Amino acid sequence: MGIIALVISxxxxxxxxxxxxxxxxxxxxxxxxxxxxxxxxxxxxxxxxAARLMLGTPYVGGLLDESxxxxxxxxxxxxxxxxxxEACLNLARTAKEYGHEADFGKFAKKVRQMRYxxxxxxxxxxxxxxxxxxxxxxxxxxxLKDVTLEAGGRRxxxxxxxxxxxxxxxxxxxxxxxxxxxxxxxxxxxxPYSYIPASNxxxxxxxxxxxxxxxxxxxxxxxxxxxxxxACIQDGVVGFIHASTTAGKVVVDERSISDYVRSRPKSLAxxxxxxxx
Length: 277
Prior knowledge:
CATH class of the largest domain: Mainly Beta
CATH superfamily of the largest domain: putative xylanase like domain
Distance between the termini: 32 Å
Radius of gyration: 18 Å
Order of helices and strands: EEHHHHHEEHHEHEEEEHE
Strand content: 15-25%
Helix content: 25-40%
């Protein structure tokens, strides 16, 4: 499907809420088509099924920062790694909850609930930028469960500070929101977080299930997660589907999760395993 330049604004999605969502008619059509195609099952299974239906979607970076002011944007015809995972999870959640009554507005409401702190769009700093916080908000809402420790993980002593220490790389960080970003980082660092080191992945792979969200943990100072994907087990290989910068689109990666991490020894420390509920 070609990208349609026309941008539509869908009416407010929550009672008494003044926010709206920016999306193209084609984005909306993709969401409807995927939800209508999903067979009933667990949220994890439906998340993986949604990922398979999204194969071939072009990878485009910076999609959420295309406007100067913070706007709630949904993109399904174009994607990046976290937008892809977020979309598949919430397409599955919407289809599972509403069945034939699932629609774009209900899907958008679920995405906003996860993407923004407490679901409220209030400037750039209200968006959840760190995957660690996205996971924790998902756990608080009963949507996700971090099973990293159960799979043999350990504490990760790797403080989060990348956005505030590299603010020049983020055009939308300014003197009005930099302190909010720092406070978010401080709050994240106040609670211990975990990972499975690269050396333990072969054993940890036995715990991974289809549809689990795999977070590739970064070695870069101050950065928590470098990449995210959806686990896909085929012929005994614990692989994954992701929006790949190398392929330029959503693909089933040919490597196992362990092999992918081992191929990036300078940038990846290991993984986290997050399970849809």
